[in-house]
Amino acid sequence: TGSRTGTATGSGRLTLAQREEIAIMHAVGASNAEIARAIGVHRSTIGRELARGSTVIEDRRPRYRASMAQTRAEWRAAKGGRSQQTKLSQHPDLVAEVQARLEAEHSPEEIAGRLRKDFPDRPEMWVSHETIYKELYVQGRGTLRRDLHQRLRTGRALRKTRRSTGERRGRIAGMVNIAERPAEVEDRAVPGDWEGDLITGASNKSAIGTLVERSSGFVMLLHLPEGHGADAVAEAMIEAMSRLPEVLRRTLTWDQGVEMTNHVQIAAALDLDIYFCDPHSPWQRGTNENTNGLLRQYFPKSSDLSIYAPDYLDHVARKLNNRPRKRHDWDTPAEVLDRLLSHPPKHGVADAG
What we know:
disordered C terminus; 7 strands; alpha/beta; two-stranded antiparallel sheet; globular
């Protein structure tokens, strides 16, 4: 087609290179028609792509992000295939029960709990409340009727980021409380369970995301140069954690900060179970809290955290990951994690290879 960035895939989807070209040209003010000519597609394709792939950051005008647009396109492609069947799609009787109870304005958690009581001898009629939320919010064209989201307390089809002050309790729909986290996470014997949080800068106007693996204390830092709203945090987390082997993506525990409003999308993209701490209970993320204290040596509260480049964040993470720890008999987090991956407990996950 004469495109500078190559043609779309055989299925007609845009490539990541084309999305990057769209992002650059859109940022400098090129029209949809000009962008379309440059990459060799119809201008209506550009209009749809900009609408689908744009996010709003800190109440500014929508900005098209190539990486997030690519991730969303991959989600849509994966969820649209019938090869990835959910439990609901395989059990019509269960679908009928869930839909009837949603119409009666029961919450997904109430439905999940009651189904076990009403059908104690039929496990095929059991479903988790998180699965119900995923069908309604993430899949879009899933098994449940799309209009049933209106029966939920929020009445929204998509989860939205909200910025307000005061109590943080109850602002995130579909949260799974830390009390439901598997007991095996507590003993730290198996790698892949993470704790996360934000450290903020002066006046809470900037932030860096912190992820700490519970067994080893291994640290990853999320670069958030343009704000720490839900979309920015989701994009950074998906980009960072998707580089991990699947064996290292078991669970994530976070507090009830509004930056995790998009937790269902994050969980779906990473195949990760996410749990939320009780309000005002930082000790429930003790590993992360201790690590955040160490990080303040490099990122003072009084500074603007948006100025630190990704390379510097990686540098700081490496320093902490190669710092001897008393709880590991002075081994480093990097050494402990390598050992856990090379010789996993027999009752734990399979070797990452």
